[in-house]
Fold this protein.
Amino acid sequence: MSAVGHAAGFDNDLYLREQKKAILDRTGRFTNRLYLEFGGKLFFDYHAARVLPGYDPNVKMKLLQELSGRADFLLCIYAGDIERKKMRADFGHTYDVDAMKLIDDLREWGIQIRAVVITRFDGQPSARVFRNKLERQGIRVYTHRFTKGYPTDIDVIVSDEGYGANDYIETEHPLVVVTGPGPGSGKLATCLSQLYHEHRRGLASGYAKFETFPIWNIPLKHPVNVAYEAATADIGDFNLVDPFHLEAYGQIAVNYNRDVEVFPVLKRIIEKITGGPSFYKSPTDMGCNAAGFGIRDDGLVREAAKQELVRRYFRYACEYALGFVEKETVQRAELLMRELGVEPELRRVVGSARAAAGEARAAGQGNKGIFVGAAMELRDGTIVTGKNSPLMHAASALVLNAVKRLAEIPDKIHLLSPSIIESVGLLKKDVFGARTVSLDLSEVLICLSINAATNPMAHLALEKMKDLQGCEVHITHIPTPGDESGLRRFGINLTTDPVFSSKHLFVG
């Protein structure tokens, strides 16, 4: 089956109904309010969409929109992530920028953030700038320091020296959604700090956790759960059978290491805060996750998840070449693929891109001795290829060839005017002092837009660009920033071989 086909293995509408019911049922268990730790991406959850075909990447926002009339929203961000300018790999921007973008996106959905919490704050200069920026825009910001005594000294943690040292955040509604960019943002600590303050006020509030993966009610080694392990291989997460759930109920449930490791401490903290037994007997109990109930075609979902394993492997291999991850991360991804009998060539575009590069080498094409091949799988399963040349990058040629195929434009017809290509090349070489005049994808798209004003074929091709959304692409060399950003705008699922397209250390 084509990796980009329209078949759905996941019932998004059913999932939305079941997930909303699960959260409301959990909220009803507590007389005051529920603090819901909301993990994963709120917007654009393309990992979930890739492994669960039919999953709406923005379904969580639809869920929150339906709950917004009875919910407050807190956004947590770890001060250390701000200070070291941690990046979101899928969008290419830092976590502080992501937090601000998230606030804007929530507002567009009619949801207002109650407050932003900067966690483990210790006066970091970048975190102070971030706080000032938000406060001057009228957004309430709280700073929480590292919790004294955590994780072993429960008496200190649950005291005025621990959670009590944090300012109490005033909320109004029975549900408080606590979210934040990435793992380790301090969501759990913020929830527990609020529980401490509210129980001291005589308010019986509770805690729960919502996170899509791993899916607790499918097998441990189901490809969807293995794909989640691959997605978190860089931070060392792994799935396991929840031992506490097995002991309490005699039922197998899947969870992941951080939740299982922290549960004994969390259970004791909750009991210390409430003065009674814990709300939960297991980490799985804490969750109110309904994704497993939305799977309607297990075979389709399994195949989609195997494809994601391959994508993650290529991403880590490139990140290793670029110095972002250690070799162990790549090896972990390889091991997970072997567990399911998956090879990189399962991804159809890989072989086609490498074949295109080989053809370019055999024909003496390419640019300055570098032979780059690129391949795209269109939605109907058709494979289109492109090669680099002195005029344009392989990604540029690929996209032009793809839209020509979609628009049924003959190969011999040129979409770009030679005069426009020449003018841009002169600008790059003579004005900007670029080493090469070969056009990257972002430059080609600008040229095509200009040409579309006078060239009907270019205009037709431009209209077909929207049909590239969600297509699969592989390139035999690490793309330049202009190629990568151009492909990202299309929402293309990109993988590349860990090979540099230039011997230069800086590629602008």
About this structure: Residues 298-321 form the longest helix (24 residues). The domain at 12-212 is CATH 3.10.630.10 (dip2346 fold like). Residues 242 and 255 are 6 Å apart (CA to CA). The chain has 20 helices and 14 strands.
